């Protein structure tokens, strides 16, 4: 079973409205992103691999909650991958010989899709400056 850093109850405390099965899947996806970002960090872990220090565990939890909250607000389902991100609707429509074209920001779908593969700034902010989390810097020994 993959390591997760939050629970559906954590989402409930932050008024994130998801059914339990969806919440579990979203938490698993967000935890994977947190794990990927913190892969080169040094921190103490429990035998199960979770952060041992309370401040680090809370930062990981808060980052997961922030990521899930963003997905819910944007209507993104991370279990569908980037292909499941919609561009927000029709760009044009024709009827009885006439047509209407809607202005749709070209990068909106790309921005939403990026949230499936990268932590959003609010989630990253939860991980910055946590005393028990030592960020590795390439080339520094």
Describe, in plain words, how this protein is organized in 3D.
A hairpin with a 2-residue loop joins strand 1 and strand 2 (98-101). The chain has 141 residues and is mainly α. The protein has helices at 8-13, 20-37, 54-74, 108-117, 121-127, and strands at 92-95, 98-101. The protein starts with 7 loop residues before the first helix and ends in a 14-residue tail after the last helix. It is elongated. The relative contact order is 0.19. It has a two-stranded antiparallel sheet. The chain contains five helices and two strands.
Order of helix and strand elements from N to C terminus: HHHEEHH
Which shape, going by the Cα principal axes? elongated
Number of strands: 2
Could you report the average pLDDT, rounded to the nearest whole number? Answer: 84
Report the end-to-end length measured between terminal Cα atoms: 34 Å
What would you report as the Rg, rounded to the nearest angstrom?
19 Å
Based on secondary structure, the structural category is mainly alpha
